[in-house]
Write a structure and sequence with these properties.
heterodimer, A: 363 residues, alpha/beta, six-stranded parallel sheet, two-stranded antiparallel ribbon, 43% helix, globular, B: 326 residues, seven-stranded mixed sheet, five-stranded mixed sheet, 12 helices
Amino acid sequence: MPKSNVASFEVSYWSILNEKGEVDESMKPSLSSDQLLSMYRLMIRARLMDDKMLKLQRQGRMGTFASILGQEAQIGAAFAMQPQDFLVPSFRENGAMIARGVPMLHLFLFFGGDERGSQMPKDVNVLPVSIPVGSQAVHATGLGMAFRLRNEPKVAVGFLGDGGTSEGDFHESLNLAGVFSANTVIVCQNNQFAISIARKHQTASFTIAQKAIAYGVEGIQVDGNDILATYAATLYALDKARSGKGPTLLEFVTYRMGDHTTADDATRYRDKLEVEKWKQKDPILRLQKYLEKLGVWNADLETKIVTEESLNVEETVKQYESYPKPDPSSMFQFVYEKMDPELLRQRELLLNHLQEEGTNHGH
Amino acid sequence: MAIKTMIAALNEALEQAMRKHDNVVILGEDVGVDGGVFRVTDGLITKFGDKRVLDTPLAENGIIGASVGMSIAGLRPVAEIQFSGFIFPAMNQIVSHVARMRNRSRGRFNCAMVIRTPHEGGVKALEHHAESMESMFLQAPGIKVVIPSTPYYAKGLMLAAIEDNDPVIFLEPLKLYRSIKEEVPEEYYTLPIGKARVARKGNDVTIVTYGSLVKTCVEAAEQLNVQRMADVEVIDLLSLAPLDFETVANSVTRTGRLVIVHEAPQTAGLGAEIAARVAERCLLSLKGPVVRVTGFDTVIPLAKMESLYIPDVSRVVKGVRKVMEF
């Protein structure tokens, strides 16, 4: 019998707001000027926070962290979510996290080395930063499975990077999500690098979005520096999941403008010219241009927003640096719901030791 | 009260848990239509439907990782890993997330879930179907590890594990699945996690053990009793984490002699931890060295040599005699 074609695939690319600030009217999401300005302000806040954390780290006042410079359009995805939805971050989603209600102070605390930074406020449905690469994708699937099984109008949005798509958890997350029609959106921030490994060495696949198709899941590639597209694509995926029509993989094509973390030196493995090229595609710049065209942005407004958000960040730094040191007991308190005799004994040992030494180790 | 095997007791526990708590969900490979390869989940999908009993793809890491998400969403997943030898793919999820979610978030999130799995060997199964890696879990603070030795304890501890707001790894000695039958209360009951039981009272020497070797130790004790060589107290730990050291210490302080028996390899096995604590806190009570009768520091052999590896009655008797004759 002659061979027949049993399957082929297509991957759509979504782009709404280009570098010049021009918008595709047919794809433009319905957002008011106020909403657009909110998004803009959040991006400014995220960038200022990022910059401040970087400066603090170089001064020894902040621990190692992963900058989101250039990836501020992740805020678009967060903006599309509803309060009851869950955000499941990796470690490069500071922008999405603050957009979802995580106080900036929490992020300063966490990256500053204090677990209380991951103790999200009760009404903030954001999971803690996940360090083991890709491992949180299955959590987003599990949450989405639960929502689907109970027919709840909630969706879990899990983030990972291009590096994360090589880990087994990524594949298991999509496969399970597909089988169970989970209320799950997986967002891959393809910022072209996993530390020094460039995207083309991470996978031979032409796009990351198409990896979903293998699991029976829709995959969409999105201009990851276009906040209108990240918003619209996520909204599409959220609506789809919420109505029981299953999971989606979104590939946000963006660029990691900074180093992998403050412990990395990207000049060792990449081209300055490439970084310069991506400056033109800056997500904040293009939204600014669009807002200007709309008559909603001007230089005075810029000054106002930057001044206010800078003060906001400064205030957070003050709170962070004057935050009381953690209680040594807390190391033992949250291993189990209730400490068992051996834990209590070990806690006693430490507390007695601290007392005897006379030093409080700053406590 | 009915006479039940451990399988039947576990099946009953799961059914009663699912009736009482509508957020309990069972998931795993072959747990639904097939009722589990050991039939522990038999009949549950018929009674509760496929939104509460999930037949999953073949993905241990995904099953456990999804359970993390499900538990945060408010479900109580009871995830099956088909044999404990297949839990290794899920070790990252267990150690990095299941064990740590409460601590990481300072209590804002926690994983109230049960991972249940057939454990240990003794039935001449294929490679990887006879593993005893419980010590690996003990090095990941934040998980509870429970291992029943009889049908009565299996049901009560399973129900307690499901109610527990901490993650519990529930190890089911597969050698005991059908080899012990006893009376198990029909009603819903829980037994405390973190409490050992005295399986046999005695005065001359304490054996501390758990899982499939409890039966072996009690038999050894009977033999030693008949031979008038020793009056042996057998402590069945039931809970490996948290460990009921108080019961062990009370017994050893009274008898002055300790033999620890486990199937898992000797080095860095739980026996080492117990021996260290006894040396630390009960030294002056000891009339002789702490003796361990354990699996060797080898891989558990395939069927033809399996019985050489697993501590049997004669090796336990020898261990007791060593400390008795010191």
